[in-house]
């Protein structure tokens, strides 16, 4: 069972007033490659991290450090003020999966979250969130994203094939009534022969 955490930031928060999109693996389950998934609304860490840490601090202990891979984050601040404390932000290129956010707490430990791109469709994001929060999951963050991309390509190809089939007279094709009349009118009268 996964946990979805609704969180609406306070007015003074820099993030939007929309709920936080976060799913965590059930507490007490065996460690998996990912501890859940986060679907931010933008690629602005300064705006997005306060809402995330506000929810995670009471659950996991005060988040003190976050690391990302700069591949998908255009600006990486060194520090982000969060609810009365500062969270240090670091980055690794080769050492960290580009689709993962690493959170550290001095008191409790480390957590890895799949970061779902903000532009992801709701259906794909829901599927990714469920897979990332599965305590039996064995896929890395990038493997989950690659699988989602392959599924998207396959669905687009299927829709394209159906569209071609329909446009070439496949499913639902029938002759228009005006053409049927024109064909029957061209049949010569053989009664007088």
TrEMBL record:
<protein>
    <submittedName>
        <fullName>Uncharacterized protein</fullName>
    </submittedName>
</protein>
<feature type="region of interest" description="Disordered">
    <location>
        <begin position="171"/>
        <end position="193"/>
    </location>
</feature>
<dbReference type="Pfam" id="PF19457">
    <property type="entry name" value="DUF5994"/>
</dbReference>
<dbReference type="InterPro" id="IPR046036">
    <property type="entry name" value="DUF5994"/>
</dbReference>
